[in-house]
Amino acid sequence: MLKVGAWYVIPFVCLQEEANNINFFLAFALISFTLVLSGVIPSPAGIGSFDFVYLFMFQPIIGTVDAVSSLLLYRFASFVLPFLLGFLVFLKERRKVITDGIEEIS
């Protein structure tokens, strides 16, 4: 639930400084409709359809520049940040395994 909640909060956090006319519930509703509609449009991996629907939903309310910049931030927050966090956890666990192996040899 926390992960899904974070996906719905990302657009509001991205737009908090730029778009003064958007509140939490409007951002939540728009991203909900965006996720539902992008799932219906057939495309490989759903990436192009999500971008299209996101811009279609947010552009009339916040403008083109803010919609595109928030889309890029959304993509970064939903793809790159989880990858980096997972990579850090992997490195921590791998370091622990290597350290334990060195201690066994010594």
Automatic annotation (TrEMBL):
GO molecular function, one term: phosphatidylglycerol lysyltransferase activity
Cellular compartment(s): Cell membrane
GO terms (BP aspect): lipid metabolic process; response to antibiotic
The keyword Hydrolase belongs to this UniProt entry's keyword annotation: no
InterPro entries linked: L-PG_synthase/AglD (IPR022791)
Signal peptide: none
Catalytic activity: L-lysyl-tRNA(Lys) + a 1,2-diacyl-sn-glycero-3-phospho-(1'-sn-glycerol) = a 1,2-diacyl-sn-glycero-3-phospho-1'-(3'-O-L-lysyl)-sn-glycerol + tRNA(Lys)
Main location as per UniProt: membrane
Membrane topology label: Multi-pass membrane protein
EC identifiers of the protein: 2.3.2.3
GO cellular component terms, A-Z: plasma membrane
Coiled-coil segments on the chain, per record: none
Keyword Transmembrane: yes
Segments crossing the lipid bilayer: 22-41, 71-91
Family listed: Belongs to the LPG synthase family.
Role played: Catalyzes the transfer of a lysyl group from L-lysyl-tRNA(Lys) to membrane-bound phosphatidylglycerol (PG), which produces lysylphosphatidylglycerol (LPG), a major component of the bacterial membrane with a positive net charge. LPG synthesis contributes to bacterial virulence as it is involved in the resistance mechanism against cationic antimicrobial peptides (CAMP) produces by the host's immune system (defensins, cathelicidins) and by the competing microorganisms.
Entry protein name: Phosphatidylglycerol lysyltransferase
Source organism of the structure: Tetragenococcus muriaticus PMC-11-5
